[in-house]
């Protein structure tokens, strides 16, 4: 599981900071989370093979999370995409995008599916053999969801030398990885635990932006490995956070602490602050470890 | 009159090339022409005082000319704009923008006016004491207009030493600049031509993008000082130009020649070509002088 931050600043795109967008890679699958203006340029800049993106998750319909989507969809068409694309986001997103494509008489020539969200309760919105994705209902000035990505357990890891020692034929290796006992020396069944070991633990990643400080999140986020939680403000401006329905870095840390997550990643910084290190300082008083998102930064969650 | 090219490439924004947008300054007034994705970042990068933009002219509703508009309008709100903003563009532009603002519950707190265009004949769409703007109906895959900006003649230039020599009191200087004869020595009327000279000739600028080669344009563009005409392709790909309703550099030059314009500026380059100098070469066989638009390039039309 690997996260590439394309943009992590609040409000408007500027010459050297970008609004929210992230690419999450899970076992070879690419998921795009939010898509502020300029996201397609960031995808090129950081050499993401973006034709491989199959699913895009939009948290809410504020410009800094969403205005780059129609351009990306159009660019996929220009690049000759043929594989299908799925968009998950608040109700209204389909009309906003399709109206613009229609005005430009620029329909996609690949299948484009919208999955509009309205529920205020967590729901599983995508699942395949490798991952399950559920919504994290948030509270902001408009209807907003975070997204929780949970890897599914992988195959057991074959200990090749043990398998050979027990006389297991190669043709049974895949079956052994699935957890079965398999024939060995003299066709005697070999107990699976003798020739395999537990798979890497499945990873989980939660994206929570934008939201007011929401203590109830801790229940759904319990034990998540990596939590990205917005921190638009520092504690000294908590009145602004409350007023605009954003969070402070300390509030993000409180969620991380109460949910016992593995690591907290901060982002969605207001550009009023000259140095983002202040966000880490604000959060680390309450919870550690804390990492700072930065445009272009890659987090390898398997290391 | 001064033109700042913010972006001049066709199709999609890339790391180092930007889709169409230009700022035209006429006697202190800023006009934005087209607004591809990333325009607001380009405005910041090239230090345009963009709060001063009062009127935005959109040629057509393809993404590379229009997808940056909603973000710019939103940013104006975040920056606390209070002066009114006027948008000129094809019918449908109002709904596309207002729907997105509504979805984000992000109405502007400054007056925003849309002037939707439908006519296929040239029409004057804005006029004040300094400039008149008319549409240039073009032919592309969707309804498209170019825009023709004509400065109005300025005041006559006062020759101060002659005015003093003729005993004209300072309080009459403004009246003299307006072309009147004014009292001089002994209250005798002084003929205006003795103390003033002709004003600088008013400049005109025509923006034509996107369009198929359209010979009828030469009538409306006759004698224009500066013509920006799209040149998506080189002559070797004129079949692609016809197919996609774009022009070649040579076709742009043919328009410039037939309309006897002062100078041709090329732009809207397909990114298939590694070196834009080829566009100048293609055009200069037919017409000179030719200039190449480049992202960030400034043309001072008064020099």
Automatic annotation (TrEMBL), chains A, B:
Query: What are its E.C. numbers?
Result: 3.1.26.11
Which residues does the annotation say bind Zn(2+) 1? 60, 62, 140, 210
Catalytic center residues:
64
Q: How is the cofactor bound?
A: Binds 2 Zn(2+) ions.
Q: Name one GO molecular function term.
A: zinc ion binding
Please list every transmembrane segment annotated in the UniProt record, as residue ranges. none
Cofactors demanded by this protein? Zn(2+)
Alphabetically list the UniProt keywords.
Endonuclease, Hydrolase, Metal-binding, Nuclease, tRNA processing, Zinc
Which reaction(s) are listed as its catalytic activity?
Answer: Endonucleolytic cleavage of RNA, removing extra 3' nucleotides from tRNA precursor, generating 3' termini of tRNAs. A 3'-hydroxy group is left at the tRNA terminus and a 5'-phosphoryl group is left at the trailer molecule
Under InterPro entries, the record lists:
RibonucZ/Hydroxyglut_hydro, RNase_Z/BN
Q: Which PANTHER family does the annotation name?
A: ZINC PHOSPHODIESTERASE ELAC PROTEIN 1
- Subunit (UniProt): Homodimer.
The family database entries (HAMAP family) matched by this protein are listed as: RNase_Z_BN (MF_01818)
Homology family: Belongs to the RNase Z family.
Put simply, this protein is called Ribonuclease Z
Recorded source organism is Aureitalea marina
Its gene name is rnz
